[in-house]
Amino acid sequence: MVASPIRTSSGVELTAAEATPADHDELYEAFAGVVAAGEGYPQAPGPLAVADFDDYWLDHKSLVVVARLEGRLAGSYYLKPNFAGRGAHIANAGYFVVPDVRGQGAGEALVRHSFGEARRLGFDAMQFNLVFESNPARRLYERLGFEVVGRIPEAVDGEAAIVYWRRL
Ligand SMILES: CC(C)(COP(=O)(O)OP(=O)(O)OC[C@H]1O[C@@H](n2cnc3c(N)ncnc32)[C@H](O)[C@@H]1OP(=O)(O)O)[C@@H](O)C(=O)NCCC(=O)NCCS
Prior knowledge:
Layout: E1 4-7, E2 13-18, H1 24-36, H2 50-58, E3 63-69, E4 72-81, E5 90-97, H3 106-120, E6 125-132, H4 137-143, E7 147-156, E8 159-167
Parallel strand pairs: 5-6
Antiparallel strand pairs: 1-2, 2-3, 3-4, 4-5, 6-8, 7-8
Bound molecules: coenzyme A.
């Protein structure tokens, strides 16, 4: 992808670019913070091994995007096929925004940006497999056209998870 500015609904200007090895340590620190806080992802809260981060966020992905605000890491997303073979036209994505940038539309801007990149990569739908029922991001996903296509009872630590899908 070509590095480009993306403007959030509240007028914050981020730059989005494909992740490079130079982003690795900052991405790891930020995602480890998300995991340590038990936010949104199924990894056990606590120290996150670098190899586990690499596997989960970087390796075997179709695209990893890094968003920056005045040069500082603001957030990231990855895209990958959600299934193999004939199901691989459906993308899966993961997103995070660093805590002090949240609530200004960066999350929404990243999700919207990922739709365009996923289409560019040939995906025609997107699915999230494990959105915690209590995750405030659900409102965002539903506003952006995701349908609930499933609910997994007692998915993580007794909490249900929602499966979301939308056509691209
Ligand atoms: C989900 C996340 C990426 C949203 O980032 P953001 O920059 O705050 O997103 P936005 O500013 O576009 O806000 C999107 C919506 O989420 C809500 N929201 C997001 N994070 C929130 C939080 N921590 N607490 C309360 N509300 C939150 C916003 O109020 C807004 O609600 P609305 O849709 O009703 O207006 C960010 O909170 C995050 O990184 N969370 C931890 C990781 C995670 O859960 N990722 C998604 C896994 S499914």
